[in-house]
Amino acid sequence: xxxxxxxxxxxxxxxxxxxxxxxxxxxxxxxxxxxxxxxxxxxxxxxxxxxxxxxxxxxxxxxxxxxxxxxxxxxxxxxxxxxxxxxxxxxxxxxxxxxxxxxxxxxxxxxxxxxxxxxxxxxxxxxxxxxxxxxxxxxxxxxxxxxxxxxxxxxxxxxxxxxxxx
Amino acid sequence: xxxxxxxxxxxxxxxxxxxxxxxxxxxxxxxxxxxxxxxxxxxxxxxxxxxxxxxxxxxxxxxxxxxxxxxxxxxxxxxxxxxxxxxxxxxxxxxxxxxxxxxxxxxxxxxxxxxxxxxxxxxxxxxxxxxxxxxxxxxxxxxxxxxxxxxxxxxxxxxxxxxxxxxxxxxxxxxxxxxxxxxxxxxxxxxxxxxxxxxxxxxxxxxxxxxxxxxxxxxxxxxxxxxxxxxxxxxxxxxxxxxxxxxxxxxxxxxxxxxxxxxxxxxxxxxxxxxxxxxxxxxxxxxxxxxxxxxxxxxxxxxxxxxxxxxxxxxxxxxxxxxxxxxxxxxxxxxxxxxxxxxxxxxxxxxxxxxxxxxxxxxxxxxxxxxxxxxxxxxxxxxxxxxxxxxxxxxxxxxxxxxxxxxxxxxxxxxxxxxxxxxxxxxxxxxxxxxxxxxxxxxxxxxxxxxxxxxxxxxxxxxxxxxxxxxxxxxxxxxxxxxxxxxxxxxxx
Lengths: 166, 493
What we know:
Structural class of chain A: mainly alpha
Shape of chain A: flat
Radius of gyration of chain B: 21 Å
Distance between the termini of chain B: 44 Å
Radius of gyration of chain A: 23 Å
Number of strands of chain A: 0
Mean pLDDT of chain B: 83
Number of strands of chain B: 2
Largest sheet of chain A: none
Mean pLDDT of chain A: 81
Helix content of chain B: over 70%
Low-confidence stretches of chain A: 1-5, 7-18
Structural class of chain B: mainly alpha
Shape of chain B: globular
Strand content of chain A: under 5%
Largest sheet of chain B: 2 strands, antiparallel
Oligomer: heterodimer
């Protein structure tokens, strides 16, 4: 049986959600409802117009909050996708979670750690998370990517990437 | 056609040729690898164009664009796994041909049809864009606000398989565009006290996050490595050319469908390919093999014809025609160019360079694809455990290179993770990004329009172009473009 893509569109129009548990549409709709209410509240904190004859800075955010309510309610009331558990199964796979966590760490530490060192560590970790086990790959590929990217950006494009200097 | 002659001089620059060939190769790689799209490729490469002059930047990006749209047909034909949604129609008949031992024929037809569609769209762009630019000069802020809404409505209606999901994504994208200082009064909006957000959400990192990083995460989650079957009976490129010459009406129709669908703001190759494929599926009186050849040709010609068509609204109105041109907005801004009606009328030489580069890129793409078509399947054998980490490194470094900002790198990964979570829930990315890109256009013009017309909202109904666009927006959104999606349902079984 073919694995469902995490980004695959829903089942046929009007078909009931497949699988057990709440549908992904209902979950998405609930999140959007919460966002709409939250953003409406935040928009009220935006100052009103200093002068008449034009829209205030808070108008567009408030309009968008109202606009978001419509599709959110549609998703909650008429969900048309498979169950959330089915779609989210991919997130529960260790390798997906590990890979996403590594990318987050890589990005958040990007400016604080020497690019070459951080990239070597990230690529090594990511390869392990994706199932690489051959010693020669693990030994050669991460430094090759780290040094190759460094050379490309530093010397090819003249971009200063974060580095530790002695 | 004066613009074409004005741009021919760009071909005398060897660096332009170098970047053009590099772009074709990158486009073939990004397009052929499932999970990496032409849009992701353009988004990742765009920050690198900071250091390049205009013509070299366009050579790199436009050639990547053309080649990327074609190259998705390679896994579609060989693995029944489209490299991008725009190649899904190709997979139906292309993979059927491969199953009959005619994979080489399918690849040849796809390459030649792509260039035919691409060249058609360039010629239409050359003829239509100057006329449209003059027409666009009559647009006021009223029309621009509604046009932006129209573009957003188009993409929301066809994305994610559900209008509600598309609309939610579009509104969330508009919300992202609101973050920052108010353009009129300078007050902070939704910055949460983060100084880096005062200038708004960083555009290039957002594009890379939502188009490239989310796809990479989705690829990891799918965890499918492709197994490539051997290309069987060889097929001569000249025979392929002959097959397309014997289908003149099909090629012209497919090229025009792709061009005009691409010219609709916010649409893209998916719709074009399915509409064109749907026309072929109704034809009778051919052998199964000939019908499959026609199916591949129609889908790929329309798919690549979108490249020129999508540049029409971008260059004439400053509104992206598809996801790649949404990224090209950033690339043009890097070069200090504001796309819009004054670009074509005021910078004919640059417009001509774009036309010539796009034309040559299509030809180069076909040449390299035909010459290297036996090598293209090997791209699919590159293990994801090596490719994906390297691509993430390019994403981060490229994003950082744009502004040298730690915030940009952090924003990229956080937005990518949040975008992936949204993708899993079914939130489509194209309307989200189009909302981010079109939001400032819509809001600025909405406020200008109401300021000029003393807060009279009826101006959007009394001005004819605005009224027509509003009716079209409502019609497209309410009816949806389900015709093309229903063809998908019939043909994909």
